[in-house]
Amino acid sequence: MSSSAALVSSNEKNDVQYIEDTTSALPPLPPTDPVLERRLLLKLDRVIIPLTIILYLLAYLDRGNAGNAKLQGLETSLHLTDTEFSVVLACFYVAYIVFNIPGNVATKILLPSTSIAMGAMLWGIASSLQAATTSYAGIIVCRLFIGIGEAFFGPSVPLYYSYWYKRDEIAFRNALFIGMGALAGTFGGLIAFGVQHIHSSISTWRILFLIEGLPTILFAIAIFFVLPSSPEKSKYLTDSERELLLNRLSRDGLVDTGKFDWSGFRRAVTDYKVYLCGIIYLGVNITLASISGFLPTIIKNMGYTAAEAQLYTVPPYAVATFLTVATSWVSDKSRLRGPFVAGYMALSAIGFGILMGVQHNQHVRYFATFLVVSGAFTCIPLMLSWCSNNCGSQSQRAVEVAMMNGIGQCFAILASFIFPSSEGPEYRKGFGLNIAFNGLAAVTALALMFLVKRENERRDRIEGPLPKEDEGRVDTVGMHDLARGFRYVM
User: Fold this and answer.
1) Sign of the torsion formed by the C-alpha atoms of 65, 71, 74 and 79
2) Where are the transmembrane segments (predicted)?
3) Fold of the CATH domain 32-482
């Protein structure tokens, strides 16, 4: 080891071991044809993106339909108290948190198409069975299994995208994926509005669960057979396309050994960045869960009927869908995540401030729901991309994305209990907690930006300028984000 590296090792303790263990670049890669790369990306996008985003649309419908069912008599039919309904909502998040890391590790160990299809089948069956529940215990069991199934899907897709796309291509595709959650809110409101006008001997909330649950079961079968498995094994690629894909991923330090590397687990749990991402995700998820469980109720308390409230949930979700996709596209082009996360979390806090501070102006309060929904949804793909971008290997990425999700979902449980009917329409507890943690998320995002910028500058001082893309690649296997040549995304 050179004397300069030894001096840095003695004086700069933060992540410095990467210099000692990786002192040479890998051999240069052959140049790629931009035209062939564009054709390859288009081929991937034609299959991977539609399949995953439609599945997320179904997932979010199945996750969030309890809020719509509440307005259609779910609580009355099952004789649920406010607290019991909150427990019903929370059960999903408890199971989702517990199975986050196992779900992502399963994606790494099994073929992604297999683990994702298994999760979809499980939550589709559980969601459909909600229509047959006659007791508090029955619907709790269903919600737990919906959470388990979605844990094998939700955090796994951003990891799965990193198998196929470079770091500056992921946020836009994550936005298309997560944008389906916002679009699901649009469809969910329209479906619930339509179902509410069905005249049948079967309760409308039971019909709602069937209409939104059964398609997931059928789609899970399609995922198993059609979704490409991995670049190394998928028959969807020709040999020349496979070589091109692995070549372009190698330039971005994204090619992996194919096996789960337990050193990636150890690196993930000792990486301070994942805990800061988790704090930001707490603020995102308390708002996301508040919207999912209570937006129809919040809007109804503005003076609308139950049917009107279902319909009026549509425009905020539609605007959020557009902003989610547009912002993530700009984020990819600028290779920046933090400024957008901080800005949208501040926007969400302002929205909740209006909801709490303005009590008698129906139109202003309704406008505030646009700020809240747009703020929460836009930050989800940005955070999934930011956390993923700053992991050096698939194994580290599998654990860190799941950890961030698990930490963030803890406040989704909290959100289930902060909007009791007795506090409406002011909901000071619910609005106040959202303001506080949206603000904390914005500040933490700025702090994380500063820290990774400083670390990149430190590595630049030690290593000098990074090699041009056609001169070498980053070997992240074994050293993960500590590899020589790796730089963080701000």
Assistant:
1) positive
2) 44-61, 85-102, 135-163, 175-195, 207-227, 274-299, 311-330, 342-360, 366-386, 398-419, 431-452
3) Growth Hormone; Chain: A; (1.20.1250)
